[in-house]
Design a protein that fits this description.
mainly beta, Immunoglobulin-like, 4-stranded antiparallel beta sheet, 3-stranded antiparallel beta sheet, 1 helix, 10% helix, disordered N terminus, HSP20 family protein, A-crystallin/Hsp20_dom
């Protein structure tokens, strides 16, 4: 059997450090999850990469405008397997976002598909732009607020 191997001494050092401090390759502290965030119209969209995470292991909480996302990925090795390489992160992943007062935390929606968790956070009604009427000696006109 021929196996192509590429050696990266820093990756090996990271793996050994995780095993030493976290035990069994599990990081000692929650790992951060990659994220994209953007505004689209009257909502913010936040996407987290969570490949291989079961949907029921994802936990979302909002408390005092702090959104916490936690997820867990456990090893998928059958019992008694002789693991040759284990580079994919396992364990608990966690991320906190501080949401501004102008966001409607009561109407956040979440969708998980193909390893991507997508959150949609609407802008609060009171924070949306609105028109203000101007009165004066001539006829009223509208300006943008």
């Amino acid at each position: 059997m021929v196996m192509l191997m590429r050696t990266d001494p820093f990756r090996e050092l990271d793996r050994l450090t995780q095993q030493f401090f976290g035990g069994n390759g599990t990081p000692a502290r929650p790992a951060a999850m990659p994220m994209d965030a953007f505004r689209s119209g009257h909502e913010y969209v936040v996407q987290f990469d969570l490949p291989g995470v079961a949907p029921d292991s994802i936990d979302l909480d909002v408390e005092r405008n702090v959104l916490t996302v936690k997820a867990e990925r456990n090893p998928a090795f059958p019992e008694g397997a002789e693991v040759q390489v284990a580079e994919r992160p396992r364990g608990t992943f966690s991320r906190q976002l501080f949401l501004g007062e102008a966001l409607d935390t009561e109407h956040i929606t979440a969708h998980y598909e193909a390893g991507v968790l997508t959150l949609r956070v609407p802008v609060a009604e009171q924070a949306k732009p609105r028109k203000i009427a101007i009165s004066g000696s001539s006829e009223p006109r509208q300006i943008d607020a």
